[in-house]
């Protein structure tokens, strides 16, 4: 995002900026726009034009979504998953970001920051498989608890809905911490001091001052998390087991398991439309908040 | 034949662009197979390289559809591909594979005649696939959970093993397995409702769905499962190679049989090496070592099976005519049926949670 240039300055600024912008836009056109338009095209075809298969244009792939309640049900399930994961990320990420921005200073802040970013540096699959080792019965959590507790407990979270939530929250938490950290850090400490000296309780300061000022970061983080989680398929497939069927895994099946790219593409664009609609509906509420 | 027009080219280019095709040297041999399925054994590829000078490079798939997709979108990338014979006909129809010069494959003489001549692998008098190994999909059990191996597939539905059952995440296999369990012909399922009911009652038993050998073996190693569908070759690998407590069972209801063939993709850059590799793969030397060292399905080469110990599972059990009579071999499945099975499977998976 850029700051608005002063009026009249626009023309003279655009020309020198062009050589700098061009590579990025060229890349975006090649890497995103073209494949995406190919997918839009596929979603209206009866079959892929490979190996002399015959094909025609159709709306059938989109109609397939409405013919059974299967896809609608799964989409709702995925939206619920997205909301839950976002909520947990807010609950865990916001306090963490606050501590990072306002409480810790110097070395300790750097150390904690590193811990937050660390998951980003490891491959997503590695993270998910290491969770599998922790969550299963007879796994690390189960054994550790039984070693300490006097009575026998059985902790086997593997292949369940909570396992999917845990894996996804872990994967996406850094987005929330980072975006909240940026907005929280920008809040002037003297504002908080002024509020306190005028008699506001800590809770009031949080409610009336900090949260509203940090709202842009919260919202940016929520959007960054919600959108990919609704379409996620890797975490549900590996951690979810029998309860791991979501909208994203069904789309993946269409591409990988049955080679029905047109239906997979149509389902993806329906997802895109629904996510955009959700964000558009939320926009007025969110705008008032910021 | 439909003529290539601009739209075709653009969309084909878009597809091909998704996978970068690297530069290929002439003496490289690119093989496409399941991971850990014979062709990629290090001792075998080393022996083949020493013998022929062709360097073997592997790529893998996780489902037959993914294999077909890779052939469609990357023409010229692979030299040898392993195809389940039930899919070879589709690959021939789509011109994804080329005829094989069986004369160049000296070990072909030992192949079981009915497999070498199988209509699944041959078209218009030309061989498009060389039968490599065959095996069965049936039930395997974790020995720690059973005193004696079960004799019926009903063990999967046994409440004593609730939450300790696995099934492969594959619509066709699940439907055919349920057809078997409900006493039907897997290639001609008359009563799909019965199949649906059978699977619906299996769902609450299931721990998770497996998609690779590795999944299955890890779950047994961690004691997470008691019983599940498995492949005969994989079960023998689990036992031989990983020392896992796994026993493969051919229940009284029967088992699903499959035949895996080796084919040469159309446009292969190293067809010469591909013929040599297929010859190497069906040779008795390779097979006996594979089965003893690692664990393998049954070779389509009779001379190779004769090279095994008389007590070996692949010779003693699967070679037994009484067992062979219970095996129903998979035939090709039409696109309509496949679509129908997938819908049924997705419905079941989505409503079982």
TrEMBL record, chain A:
PROSITE patterns: ABC_TM1
Keywords (A to Z) from UniProt: Cell membrane, Membrane, Transmembrane, Transmembrane helix, Transport
CC per GO annotation: plasma membrane
Main location group: membrane
Subcellular location(s) of the protein: Cell membrane
Domain ABC transmembrane type-1: from-to ranges: 75-282
Topology versus the membrane: Multi-pass membrane protein
Gene3D superfamilies, alphabetized: MetI-like
Family recorded in the similarity comment: Belongs to the binding-protein-dependent transport system permease family. CysTW subfamily.
Entry protein name: ABC transporter permease
TrEMBL record, chain B:
Keyword Metal-binding applies: no
GO MF annotations, alphabetized: polyamine binding
Pfam families: SBP_bac_8 (PF13416)
Source superkingdom: Bacteria
Matching InterPro entries: SBP, Sperm_putr-bd
Gene Ontology BP annotations: polyamine transport
Subcellular location: Periplasm
UniProt protein name: Extracellular solute-binding protein
Organismal lineage: Bacteria, Pseudomonadati, Pseudomonadota, Alphaproteobacteria, Rhodospirillales
